[in-house]
Design brief:
Length: 151
């Protein structure tokens, strides 16, 4: 784990509103998986990867008054018809990483560790955009990072 500042960037992809009360809830996991499965079947990431600046897959968790807006896509400066473009502001982040399991399992473990095991009490989440980053392109045997914006 580390603290790191990240410059602003743009993500091109698609999103879904997942209803809930907080930024992190156990019920989100299944809905995130269903959303990614749909996008995989549509070939979205395969279609977007040629436009990617770093060849990594991203998900954004954006707090919403009705739950979270969950985006999936790639970092790109290119606006592509049929896809949303989101700008993520420069932030200071708390970064954790994990590997050797399915990406959703790893992201859930990292989020649980931060939000349920007390880390958030000493390193305060700032209600900003959380990043889930798939580093190796293999969601079945993943290498991931979770970037949580902090104060």
């Amino acid at each position: 784990m580390r603290n790191q500042k990240r410059n602003s960037f743009k993500l091109v992809g698609r999103s879904v509103l997942i209803k809930g009360q907080k930024v992190h809830e156990p019920s989100y996991s299944e809905q995130k998986t269903e959303f990614y499965t749909q996008l995989f079947e549509e070939g979205m990431l395969k279609n977007l990867m040629p436009y990617s600046l770093d060849k990594k897959g991203y998900a954004l968790i954006i707090p919403h008054d009705k739950g979270i807006q969950y985006y999936a896509g790639v970092i790109s400066e290119t606006k592509i018809d049929g896809y949303e473009l989101v700008e993520v502001p420069e932030q200071k982040y708390y970064v954790t990483e994990a590997s050797s399991d399915k990406s959703r399992v790893l992201f859930d473990q990292l989020e649980d560790s931060y939000f349920k095991n007390g880390i958030h009490e000493s390193i305060a989440y700032n209600n900003g955009i959380i990043l889930e980053v798939l580093l190796n392109g293999n969601p079945q045997n993943a290498e991931v990072e979770l970037w949580i914006p902090v104060k």
